[in-house]
Write a structure and sequence with these properties.
Length: 365
């Protein structure tokens, strides 16, 4: 790919413009900034040996030109600087904040499991290893946990979903480039990656409305209301004020999925024509056992389908993409020496994909 030259000069240096097909290199940035490639590399790495004004100027030029680091090269260069042989790929920590050591990889929530799988795969693609560490191991404190990771030479953390009601981890954040998977938390200003749960609810409502459903009912656990900060409820209520004729029934909050007796009573009393739930598979099994036909007698839509092409209609969150995106952000922070808790958190939300499935009436009906 080539780089086009503009028709004017700065001194003896041409201004280089990036086109849609351009691959901007470090050399491109160096020519534009009139410095050496070594200086550009040090500036992009926030090396304190370069004056702050110079770092800021060159970083701005790189951003304007659209320069992006190659994570493979960056990881390799870091290993060489540290004297590690190439077989010892840099290590990233997947921090499991759930109740048991295996709770993340064995979670009943398929999206949660997929986050771990996607993170491990993307780390390998980028020349890193991702290894899981359990926050609750041996009852150690957050400070001690930080020391263990630091002793292993780990500087990048991807925090998985946290157990409901447990205190937030008190790590030595200044040592790490850290990203969290899950909805943002006001008390922890970490960069966050998650599904857009509000929009997922809106998507489900819109698709159900197009198929003629007018009495949607949301079923979830008590803890979901707190964990997802009312996003699913909010999407349902917002949609009902926009989609003509929609009259949602009162949301059913269950204590656990082990006791679904309240579900049968709620269906008889509220008479929803479609049930929306993050654990639609469990509800599907219950309905079939009770003699309900899907979708002839009642519709069912999932807020977390296991895969594209799943039998259950609803939203595929794509947990693997969420986990992979989290790793991308950790690596980006590592390459730019961004550590500690930022003053203002950022959240990247991944939109779900609609899966037609077979638990809603067909469109032609």
């Amino acid at each position: 790919m080539g780089i086009g030259l503009a028709g004017r000069k700065r001194g003896a240096v041409y201004i280089l413009k990036q086109t849609m097909s351009t691959s901007v290199t470090m050399k491109t940035v160096a020519i534009e900034a009139q410095v050496t490639q070594a200086t550009v590399s040090m500036c992009l790495a926030n090396n304190p040996r370069i004056p702050l004004a110079t770092r800021t100027r060159i970083q701005a030029i790189a951003e304007r030109l659209g320069y992006r680091r190659n994570p493979y090269v960056s990881a390799l260069m870091r290993m060489r600087r540290q004297g590690n042989p190439p077989r010892l790929w840099p290590l990233l920590a997947l921090v499991n904040g759930l109740d048991t050591a295996a709770a993340w990889r064995n979670s009943t929530a398929v999206t949660v499991r997929q986050m771990s799988e996607g993170a491990i795969k993307r780390a390998a693609e980028c020349g890193y290893r991702a290894e899981e560490f359990w926050l609750g191991r041996d009852g150690m404190s957050g400070e001690r946990f930080s020391d263990v990771l630091h002793a292993r030479g780990i500087h990048g953390l991807l925090l998985g979903p946290m157990a409901t009601g447990v205190p937030l981890p008190r790590l030595k954040w200044e040592r790490f480039s850290a990203v969290r998977l899950g909805v943002p938390l006001a008390a922890l200003t970490l960069t966050t990656v998650c599904n857009d749960h509000f929009f997922s609810s809106v998507q489900v409502m819109r698709e159900c409305w197009k198929l003629g459903y007018r009495r949607p009912g949301l079923v979830m656990l008590d803890m979901h209301l707190e964990r997802f900060q009312g996003r699913w409820n909010g999407g349902l209520l917002a949609s009902s004020s926009i989609l003509r004729g929609t009259k949602p029934v009162r949301t059913l909050l269950l204590k656990s999925w082990d006791d679904l007796a309240p579900l049968g009573e709620w269906i008889k009393r509220a008479r929803p024509d479609v049930i929306i739930s993050p654990f639609a598979k469990i509800i599907q099994t219950y309905l079939v056992t009770m003699g309900w036909r899907l979708p002839q007698d009642i519709g069912l839509a999932s807020l977390a389908c296991e895969k594209q092409g799943d039998e259950c209609s609803g939203i595929f969150q794509n947990g693997r993409l969420i986990g992979a995106t989290g790793i991308d952000m950790v690596i980006s922070m590592l390459e730019h020496n961004e550590t500690g808790l930022p003053a203002q958190a950022q959240t990247l939300m991944i939109e779900g994909i609609w899966n037609p499935g077979r638990t809603l009436r067909p469109a032609e009906a």
